[in-house]
Amino acid sequence: MQRTLSKTTIGAVAALSIALASAMPAQALGRNERNVLKGIVGTLLVQEFIRSSRRNQAAQQPRYVERRYYQPAYTTPAPRSTYSVYSTPAAQAFNSYSYSERRIIQSRLSNWGYYNGSIDGAFGPRTYSAIQAYAGSGRGADRLRSVDGAYGVYDELLRS
User: Fold this and answer.
1) What is the pTM of this model?
2) What is the pLDDT of residues 132-155, one digit of tens each?
3) What is the full DSSP assignment across 8-31?
4) What is the distance between the alpha carbons of residues 91 and 105, in angstroms, rounded to a whole number?
5) Which of 140, 126, 135, 137 is closest to 154 using CA atoms?
6) Please, are residues 90 and 131 in contact by the beta-carbon 8 Å criterion?
């Protein structure tokens, strides 16, 4: 809006000055005086165009501001927990079985009411929850903390 207003203002000033210069009697302003007046108006127009183009360039260029945040020395950020069911010993042991054995494990867990997902042979959060529930129901949930213990739980499922 500002650009439109300044262009309109410049145009009005230029038109008014040219009209005044040509409407005055010849005795009031001579040829040289009129040319000087036209030169001044032309100079003002060129200066305004230069200023507006610089403003437009400054507005179009991205401004990168380095932000520094103060963090007191006595606070330390808490470490982020990166726990994932895919990196557990139960997942490592499960994924070492063949595809058909993994499907048998999931179907047995499903038959006994521990697993309610699709029988796809893939280890995920539902399979992990089902294995934990199965191992926690009197079979020793501590066995899932090691890969050897997880193999024992899976072998029980495959034998039964």
Assistant:
1) 0.49
2) 999 887 767 788 888 999 999 899
3) HHHHHHHHHHHHHHHHS-TTTS-H
4) 13
5) 135
6) yes
